[in-house]
Design goal:
By secondary structure, this protein is an alpha+beta fold. It has 2 domains: about 70 residues, Phosphorylase Kinase, domain 1, CATH 3.30.200; about 230 residues, Alpha-Beta Complex (Aminoglycoside 3'-phosphotransferase, Chain: A, domain 2). It has 12 helices and 11 strands. Strands 1, 2, 3, 4, 5 and 6 form a 6-stranded antiparallel β-sheet that branches. Strands 7-9-10 form a 3-stranded antiparallel β-sheet. A two-stranded antiparallel ribbon has the order 8-11. Helix 7 crosses helix 9. This is CotS family spore coat protein. Keywords: Capsid protein, Virion.
């Protein structure tokens, strides 16, 4: 049995299977199981092997695990354009299926439906808490955080205001939510998904925003990379004008600034200052380039 990142490869059985730890409660574990039972209908999903009791998870070493098929292939690489295109097509397939699945019984999926407005309001409150802690600490990193608080605080208020004003069509689907390259397996230019711990029910743009932000971060929010990924979405998973507006609103909320401040001031993650600074430079340091991307999106809407 081979183990990596809390995932166990069971080589003793044929075909090989994977035992993956679930970092969610029983309710969400049951919803993950309900989704993965549909793998024959939605091929981007892995096949699940339920326990003898009929539950989608197994108890192993005191934690819940799901047993799924071993997905042959490699991790995605978003520097490879074919992998990006495969991810977009997998997203479209998941969303189209997710809409139909939720429509059958919306109440079942309501526990994982995200309320974006309340989420952003809570995160803005946490940013204000971080600002208060930073003022008291008076360290170099705190001063760096405070210098950009007004800019990112303004963006947070703007995003919340714009979300309240948005009058587009409400659409619920299953969002994968975490489009990190290591959460997709690529084989023959097709992507499959396997880590559903963070799945939520929300508008499809939620996932589009997640993937776009990750992609642009790789290219330091350059305008070329922005046009490249927007064109590929337009080609493989087309936009409506109201979706572009919602994308602009979602990208506006300063997620990176919020999460890094939370990890440093509230969670007090025991990471080195070198690591924190690397994260700052990678995620926050390009804030001026982000503004150029926002300006471009405004022109496209």
């Amino acid at each position: 049995m081979y183990q990596r990142r809390g995932v166990y490869l069971l080589r003793e059985v044929t075909p090989h299977k994977v035992l993956k730890q679930l970092k969610v409660g029983a309710q969400q574990a049951l919803l993950i199981g309900k989704l993965l039972r549909q793998s024959r209908v939605c091929p981007v999903l892995p096949q699940i092997f339920e326990s003898n009791s009929g539950k989608p998870y197994h108890w192993f070493r005191g934690s819940r695990y799901i047993l799924i098929e071993f997905l042959e292939g490699r991790e995605a690489d978003y520097f490879n354009l074919e992998d990006l295109q495969a991810a977009i097509q997998a997203m479209k397939e998941l969303h189209c299926f997710g809409k139909e699945l939720i429509a059958q019984n919306p109440r079942i999926w309501s526990p994982i439906k995200i309320n974006l407005l309340k989420t952003w309001q809570r995160r803005l409150a946490e940013m204000e808490t971080c600002r208060e802690i930073a003022i008291r600490q008076k360290t170099g990193w705190s001063q760096q955080y405070l210098q950009l608080w007004h800019h990112h605080g303004t963006l947070a208020h703007q995003a919340i205001h714009e979300l309240l004003q948005w009058r587009g069509k409400e659409i619920d689907t299953i969002c994968y939510h975490d489009w990190a390259f290591h959460n997709l397996i690529i084989k023959e230019a097709k992507a499959r998904l396997f880590d559903f711990d963070y799945m939520v029910v929300d508008h499809p743009v939620h996932d589009k925003c997640n993937l776009i932000a990750r992609y642009l971060r790789l290219f330091q929010w350059s305008l070329d990379s922005t046009l490249r990924i927007l064109w590929n979405f337009d080609h493989y998973y087309p936009w409506s004008s109201e979706e572009l507006r919602l994308l602009f609103v979602m990208l506006t909320f300063p997620y990176d600034y919020w999460i890094l401040g939370r990890q440093y001031f509230i969670e007090k993650q025991p990471w080195s200052m070198r690591y924190y600074q690397e994260q700052w430079m990678r995620k926050i340091g390009c804030f001026k380039k982000k503004q150029l991307v926002f300006d471009l999106l405004n022109k496209l809407m």
